[in-house]
Design a protein that fits this description.
Layout: H1 2-6, H2 8-22, H3 26-50, H4 60-92
Helix pairs in contact: 2-3
Amino acid sequence: MTDLYLGNFPSFPLVIGWFTTNNIGSYKRAVALAAMYSIQGTATFLGAYTFLSKDAPRYIKGFSICLGAQGMALLFTLLYTASLWWENRQRDLGKREYLRSHPNPEELADRHVSS
């Protein structure tokens, strides 16, 4: 039930796609997906201690926690989007050109600028 209120259930396929698309390299992708599954799993665990029967029928504490979690998710999404926009802007301005001439591009991993 908490997954439904926290938005984990309907947004989970979107988040999986987002994580796999924005993480390059099998090791980094694996760690990112493991972290995402861990965070998603804690929401289910947290639900058992959030929606207590003594708070019935309105569950103000539980819904307040869910609303706060949604607010944090929105904030983190906006910060992540802004950081991606800034990095792409830096690349468009040519401030990452020095990465193209790196002697060993494999060392750069995600910082590598593709042609």
